[in-house]
Write a sequence for this structure.
């Protein structure tokens, strides 16, 4: 009988806990668990050819007793990487069911505010449903933790912020030199590509039930940064907007406050209309994008990159078949356009507990979506037409990051530097779009009812 060295069993232990096939959260390449690479210790002098200025990636032959790889210099390594793009991710990702969520939209539509509020809500509220959350060590998670403290400080005093921005040293994208060969080849000896490929960095969050840690879920969040450029911008041919095409669900952000027809409705109070008229963004059309143009740009890129279950691209006549959520932001400003019964739903929690698995009340979600759909049919029918032509599975959900009308006090309307107090902020439904998308993805944690 053949005797295996102890390191063989350590590698076997690692591979048995991983899923059979892994989907890279960076480049979307599919690879077998045993092909996973490890990242050499950061003190290693060897640099990787595909990821500049980072330690070399390698396939290990020796492991420590706790199943960590040893590099060529016999140093212990903990980080793992994709064999195709060589970008690293948490080892825990190999053991969990991933859910990839893409967020897209024009500038000043509230994407970053929403992401910050959603992560804040996850950290604060998931425990109420018997779930626990922990984040990866990615720079994006660190950035959102910083912005959470800005938006929802421990002591809710002082002025509010008008804009959330990523710090200048945050790594929101990586340039890698992937070989010019096909996506399904992982030859470690293949020469790197001649031109860099830009891959967007996801933030990884892990969710599991407090009473069953084996049922674990990995949420990959992608903030579609390149859509913050003016609509219609051409991108270099070697730029991969992978997060657009690999998402299991897609959120598109629409801000009615940027729509003149919405904000001129006679159903809005004078105070709510002031929230439109006094916003600096409304007076500077150079920083606003037409949502129809942005949506069409996004749809065009998805059709070019997306693959259905048979591996085929979407034709001009086919529709996107994954869940598309139109996240309608700043509902605290325009919610009076909705019927009273629908407004009352926004104060309800649509999450139902059914033993070890949560469920969403689909009736409430559909009623709210239908009411917003009616508003779009009246105030933005052109946008509704392009959405209907692109996707089959669409839900409209209202959210508010603050939960209160964030208009500047009357006494400060003439002061362009005036800000608001952050006290009293109470986000509305910022976690509902995520829970809905997870339920549609047949999550082991939550389902539709």
């Amino acid at each position: 009988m053949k005797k295996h060295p102890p390191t063989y069993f350590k590698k076997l232990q690692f591979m048995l806990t991983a899923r059979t096939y892994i989907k890279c959260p960076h480049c979307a390449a599919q690879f077998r668990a045993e092909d996973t690479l490890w990242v050499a210790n950061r003190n290693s002098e060897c640099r990787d050819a595909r990821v500049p200025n980072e330690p070399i990636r390698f396939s290990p032959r020796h492991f420590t007793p706790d199943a960590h790889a040893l590099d060529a210099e016999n140093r212990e390594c903990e980080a793992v990487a994709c064999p195709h793009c060589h970008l690293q991710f948490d080892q825990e990702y190999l053991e969990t069911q991933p859910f990839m969520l893409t967020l897209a939209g024009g500038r000043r539509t509230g994407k970053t505010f929403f992401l910050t509020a959603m992560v804040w809500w996850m950290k604060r509220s998931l425990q109420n449903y018997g779930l626990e959350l922990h984040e990866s060590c990615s720079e994006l998670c660190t950035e959102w933790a910083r912005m959470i403290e800005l938006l929802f400080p421990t002591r809710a005093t002082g002025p509010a912020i008008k804009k959330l921005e990523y710090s200048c040293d945050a790594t929101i994208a990586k340039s890698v030199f992937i070989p010019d060969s096909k996506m399904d080849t992982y030859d470690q000896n293949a020469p790197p590509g001649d031109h860099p490929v830009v891959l967007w960095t996801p933030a990884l969050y892990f969710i599991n039930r407090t009473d069953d840690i084996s049922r674990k879920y990995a949420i990959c969040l992608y903030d579609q940064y390149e859509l913050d450029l003016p609509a219609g911008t051409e991108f270099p041919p070697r730029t991969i907007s992978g997060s657009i095409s690999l998402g299991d669900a897609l959120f598109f952000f629409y801000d009615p406050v940027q729509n003149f027809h919405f904000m001129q409705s006679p159903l809005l109070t004078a105070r709510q209309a002031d929230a439109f008229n006094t916003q600096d963004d409304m007076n500077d059309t150079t920083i606003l994008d037409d949502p129809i143009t942005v949506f069409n740009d996004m749809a065009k890129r998805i059709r070019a990159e997306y693959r259905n279950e048979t591996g085929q691209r979407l034709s001009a006549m086919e529709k996107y078949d994954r869940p598309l959520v139109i996240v309608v932001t700043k509902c605290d400003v325009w919610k009076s356009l909705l019927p009273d019964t629908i407004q009352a739903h926004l104060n309800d929690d649509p999450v139902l507990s059914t033993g070890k698995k949560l469920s969403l009340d689909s009736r409430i979600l559909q009623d709210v979506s239908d009411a917003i759909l009616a508003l779009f049919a009246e105030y933005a029918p052109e946008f509704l037409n392009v959405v209907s032509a692109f996707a089959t599975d669409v839900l409209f959900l209202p959210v508010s990051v603050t939960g209160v009308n964030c208009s500047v006090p009357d006494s400060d309307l003439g002061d362009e530097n005036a800000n608001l107090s952050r006290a009293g902020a109470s986000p509305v439904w910022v976690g509902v779009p995520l829970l809905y998308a997870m339920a549609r993805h047949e999550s082991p944690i939550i389902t539709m009812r």
Observations:
- The two ends are 54 Å apart (CA to CA).
- The chain is about 25% helix and 20% strand.
- Confidence is low (pLDDT under 50) at residues 1-12, 182-186, 225-242, 407-423.
